[in-house]
Amino acid sequence: MSDPRDAGMIGRRTDGKIVHRPLSPHLQAYDMMQMTSFTSIAHRMAGCAWAAGTLLLAWWLMAAATSDVAFARVQWFMSSFLGILVLFGLTLAAWYHTLAGLRHLVWDAGYGFDIPTVYKTGRAVLIGTIVLTVLTWLFAIAFWG
Amino acid sequence: MATETSPRAMRTPLGRVRGLGSAKSGTHHWWMQRVTSIALLPLTIWFVISMIGLAGAGYLETLLWIGKPVNAVLMISLIALTFHHMAAGLQIVIEDYVRNEAQRIVALLLVKGGCALLALACTFAVLRIAFAI
Hints:
A: 145 residues; mainly alpha; 3 helical TM bundles of succinate and fumarate reductases; elongated; B: 133 residues
């Protein structure tokens, strides 16, 4: 166990016996700056962020269905500094999960598995996320006025 | 070799696994996650564009937008698929990271129940607005 990479090889059989074998990437064992592992865990984290964001969607819709006072409270939060920050983060997560999800669908269809292509599509997803997030907010701010 | 003449070696792989229990839903969970993701692709893009258009809109303007038949139907589709996809995704995350079985079952039930409640709340809100206008 002198090599830190061994941390990614310790597994347990169903009877509890410790065995030496490769495992799925996990945070302690892998270099998260690799394109492959970073885009993978980020996809999961973006999905979880979007899941938390559905609470805002539910609050917005329920408030709109309740009264103008309830709706004003949502609008106050959404236009506060914290609200804008949360909405910006959700936009980022939504675009990332959408583009990375598209990449997963292409993989599911059996294409793009070789390392150069994986790095190329990974970069495209990251750049696309930033471009679409910035565009979304530029348009939103333009409409706000 | 002795094993090659044993009755076990004569059996087909299918014959060996038959009667050992069902494969349950097989790839259904995985497949539904892909199906909902494909459907969510255009719906989410429509939703983001719509929210850009609604930025800074007042109460009445928002109600009128939600209440439009096309928007109400697309919103309910988005809600149903989002919470289906979300429950499926969170289920995988929980199954991957929660090792204690009791904790895993409780977490799964809470997530499934929460997703169902949120989906109902969102759908009810859209319908109430749509029918009131």
